[in-house]
Amino acid sequence: MDLGLKDRVYVVTGATRGLGNAAARELVADGAKVIVTGRDEKSAADAASALSPDAVAAVGVAADNADPGAAARLVETARERFGRFDGVLISVGGPPPGFVADNTDEQWQAAFESVFLGAVRLARTAAAELEDGGVIGFVLSGSVYEPIPGLTISNGLRPGLAGFAKSLADELGPRGIRVVGLLPGRIDTDRVRELDALSADPEATRAASESRIPLRRYGTPEEFGRTAAFLLSPAASYVTGVMLPVDGGGRHGF
Prior knowledge:
Layout: E1 9-12, H1 18-29, E2 33-38, H2 41-51, E3 58-62, H3 70-82, E4 87-90, H4 105-129, E5 135-139, H5 152-172, E6 178-184, H6 190-196, H7 202-211, H8 221-232, E7 242-246
Parallel strand pairs: 1-2, 1-4, 2-3, 4-5, 5-6, 6-7
């Protein structure tokens, strides 16, 4: 199936590893061009080089989502390097784990600036620049529907972003701009393995998690990336305002 991604240009944040990187990889594989961002300049450049050694389809840019000027700079870079801007996938690193009593005010504030306000700024800037057929995507979490033990900050911020995304979808729909969200479950990334490793018995933790997933396994980054590429593509042109679980059936509700 041709997703219609050839020569379309996307900004993918937090794409030096994990889910953002998986999405960028699939976009490039289907013919799109991407601006890959990460906080570290070398990591962003290395990630882009791995996707497109000749820099024809990927460019790395150091950017912190918490930086108020980052959003405009990324859109400008997309236009300068590739001549157009068709959408953004906003993926940010997970906030520090911890329970209610563990997380400090400083951790909450830093996470709000990066995870929440940074995402809002990126979406708001993209909305002002996109035309009919543009798309704004958010990588959120299954915690949008159900809190995840030990991830209190994420549980507090992700549902708010989902509400913002739905409001944005309603506002931008008349302009032909779509807004979508992805809710990854247990995808086999470094981040998930790090969280599993916090338990006394990581192997037992993984086995217990897999037993609660109807498909009885963690997802692969490639599976997530293909889903993201589809939602960002013209092939999904009548899909907006949705929060799509990518969790192997782990969410037991409609």
